[in-house]
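Weekend entry, working from home. Most of the wet-lab plans are on hold until the incubator is repaired, so I used the time to fold the two sequences that have been sitting in the queue since the last round of cloning. Logging both here for the record. First:
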Amino acid sequence: MEAVGTPEDDPPYALASGRIGAASVSFFGLAAAAPAVTLITLVPVALAAGSGPLVPLSFVALAVVLLLFCGGYAAMARRSPSAGAAYTQVARGLGRPAGLTTAWLAVTGYQAIQFGLYALAGAAATPLAQSWTGVTVPWWAGAAGCWALVALFGTMRIEVAAGVIGLLAVAEAAVLVGMGASNLLQPFGGRITLDSIRVDDPGLIDRPVLGLLLAAGVLAFAGFESTGNYAEESLRPKRSAGLGGYGSVVLVALLLGGLSWTMIVAAGPSRISAVADARGAELLFDLADERLLPWAVTLGRLILITSVLAGVLALHHAMARYLYAMGRDGVLPGVLAGTGRRTGAPRAASLTQSLIAGAALAGAYVAGADPGPVTARWMILGGALSILLLLLATSLAALLHLNRVPGDEGAWTRFISPLLSTVSLGSLVYLAFRDLPQILGLPAGYPLVRAVPAAIAGCVLLGLVHAAVIRWRWPVRYAGIGLGGTAVVVTPEKEKAPEIRIPQQRDPGVHRPERAANRRSPGPG
């Protein structure tokens, strides 16, 4: 008999194991969420809309929802640690077509966020270069420098990239905490009042505004779920990814919730809406400029660039591992599963991702594009919507799989936590698409408002069509989707074992990877 799992031309090298711990995984998730970018692009808009204390409170509420999500996510990662992360988990829980669809949602969503961060890097580099050298640097120069660094670190050993990202993430957190401390030490009016955090009459809360705030706020966490991509390379494959997910959610919530509250304290609870509307993306820096020395404000602007660099690098690694996992399963060219002989990094997938990003940046330059913070915000939010759908699919997959194939998880991890997160994330998906014009800050009839859902629908269609083609053209590869290269299908020689057959697509449950084991057909008579 011939055992078949991955394509015959799969490379002989695998990802290096035992390279990073849970703390490094948490920093990957924190960097991918890019809290400094959210504080500059999203929080001022929410404060200007009159949300006030609801902004920090919403980050706390969303952290609770995402911690519920992490329960099922960590349990699924313990059962099957894989670089495919959500792709693998959804394939096991909802079937192979849903798994491939999730993979494409992840890749395209991360790409959109990454391009938005590149645009933000170019926009942030211009004023710094102008103040330091007096030379006007075009946006594409800053973006190109960021791209070159990401392409370089993308092919290095994972612990090297983890060290760089950890250093940048710690520096970002330290600077943000310093700015927040200055806001608290010099509050508006000389004292901190309960009005900065108190909602006087919950019954008067504008429910559409609250829904908009929750939907937009959860998009600020997009990227934390990429912690699952490093399960195979962690010291404890069955635990590090889950612990990293919990850690990144807590860190992002503390930074976003804490810093947004200190901004209210610094500007004054009664003035924050007008101040945020007047200063926009400069709100964080203007508040710091009133309280800190000029060099500290310049350091804050520099940390924005390093935050963008860390975010792009973290997203690059996540996308490279999705491409690697899909190449290993045979649904994309097997060359993408190639790893460095010495580094153990997914070198082929990383170089492919670098070429895609470089081609996109070159195309934007040739087309004469001049993206700024507003364009970056549109792209980041559009990509985050795709990731929000990924979270919903992953939560539902965990709920179904953990209960369909019972393990040693308790009732909370197996049922209650995934159920609560699925309902909560489903509500947030509804609110996000219902309030999409307000989230993007555009009129309802604006073309971009229609383009974002159309692009996401295109990703879903791409995943379903891709799965159908693989199933029709390469049924053996289709049977291995979501299994990380594990050989589960046996092609018998009929003359030696006529009683063994490959499961057919119409066999009950064969669309789920855990049921892809061979079955014996009934004997004669």
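Second, folded right after the first finished:
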Amino acid sequence: MTDVHRTVDAVWKLESAKIIAGLTRLVRDVGLAEELAQDALVSALEQWPESGVPDNPGAWLMTIAKRRAVDQIRRSRRLERKHEQLAHELDQQDSELDQQQDPEQDDVLRLMFISCHPMLPTEARVALTLRLLGGLTAAEIARAFLVNEQRIAQRIAGAKRALAEEQVPFELPDGSELAERLSSVLEVIYLIFNEGYSATSGDDLMRPGLCLEALRLGRLLAELAPHEAEVHGLVALMEIQASRSAARTGPSGEPVQLHEQNRGRWDQLLIRRGFTAMLRAREIDGTPGPYVLQAAIAVCHAQARTFEDTDWRQIAALYEALARVLPTPIVQLNRAVALGMAYGPQRGLDLVDSLTADPVLQDYHLLPGVRGDLLIRLGRYGEARLEFERAASLTRNVAERAFLRRRADEIAVSGTSGVTLAQAAQDFLGRDDLDAGTVRSYGQTLRRLRLTLGDQMPLAALTADQVARVFATAWGEAAASTWNRHRSAVRSFGAWASLDHLAAALDRRAEVRTPTETIDPAQLEALWNRTDLRLRERTLWRLLHESAAGVTAVLSLNVEDLDLDDRRARAGDTWVSWRSGTARLLPHLVAGRTRGPLFLADRRPGPARMPADTDLCPETGRRRLSYERAEYLFKQATKSLDSAGSGYTLRQLKPRP
């Protein structure tokens, strides 16, 4: 990259938010504003290598972008008079802007509020904010979050499209709306910081680039909204947390716990900046909000010269106050840590145990991690080891998983535990007398038990009360049919393992069945006549309609089970038969295959998500089409037919009686 290109890149990172914000106020379309800003960037890349970098590169880019905006309006052939009026207004706004001292700040603040609008999904808000205010490309955002670049591009495009369709005004919220909108902005910035500070997936514990970007956005917001205490509270919290970054990992990138960190490596400059931001927050009158309270907790840690000097009682009191304004399970889990340090591990464990039934935390790896720490301090080493092993199985971060497994391995447990839950589940599902559909169904139930109780749970120690707690958390609000299906799986597993008591605390729920409304024949005919549908979908839907068989049974069919001459196929203990419509399509779908699932997914599975051999096609390497994917595709295809606009379900393909 040439020096000029590096300069252009640096200028874009610094000035893009101001340019896009100013253009958005003028053209009232954030998507168009970004396109115009990108056009100006291209002009800079073309002209600056020859003409040199201008004295005020940001103003140069804004001027070019504004000219493009005027040209864009004047070139339009539709609504010519209206566009001429808009162009005239734009010229007037330009002259007014020249007389204003500093319009950019309000524009950037407006851009923050619009990119973090609550109507957008959280992931879209994060991506759009990094794109518009951070100046990051879709590729850079994708690398930071370890996702596909196309997915990020789709999120950004979808967010801009949604803002345009809803005609979200480019203005600062006021009154009661301000608190909600500001909360959304703060949430997005802190989400970006947290993903950098403690990555949810990938090889590394931290992604410093995201931390720095969140800090930059937080500091910028503090300049734009200097009278909002929560903004300064968030900045203080991030500054102090970021100060520990160098001490949080060891030589090999492994996590270093707070009590083991070398506090001499904490960045004192960031700590002082955090203290300053906290003082600004306190100078603003009002009841402390969640970010100010979290910052106060961070200040307590930063003020302690050693871990032993930490004022845990003060931290516990702050968490109690935080739980009143932000009553989330995560806050309560952190409060349990503080209570355990201030008043003894049993006090903390009591609170943690009360959180185990919360569905929000059922797959949260820090819950068993915290519980393991408390159990070690109570001398219950065998239980602690199981908790660390379960925490390791739940986290998607490689460094954190290795750390948790190492902690489990360091705990010496006397005696042998015998067969584990994981071993028993694998043996149970590996039996020859179970068909593919049953294996999938039972596997879902046992996977939930393993995730919640841990793979290394001794099978002999498994109790009916533990199973009942898992059911209450995972399926307590589920339909009766779902509850009964999982209950049946536990009963079968218990009978096989000679543990008939496992389902003793699970009562069967009464199922109220309502007749399934079938699709009108005229609509079906319109569906069959569509030429834009894929062969796989047309065959599946025809087969479901002509056979009147269950969706699960049809999706479980294998190529080797087909009898094309007799128009039938074996599905477990029953037969699925069809008529001429399906008979014309099936040979084309099979296309010379002799083995494997009849209906295949679009892509091959990744190494980490390999299905059972019975669900994998040996000739194509693709897996069996899932019920969820098949249902989604049918709903999408039938939205135009459904008067409610939500689409039909596959069960509605059954013929009318």
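Plan for Monday: verify the second prediction. Residues 231 and 421 are 48 Å apart (CA to CA).
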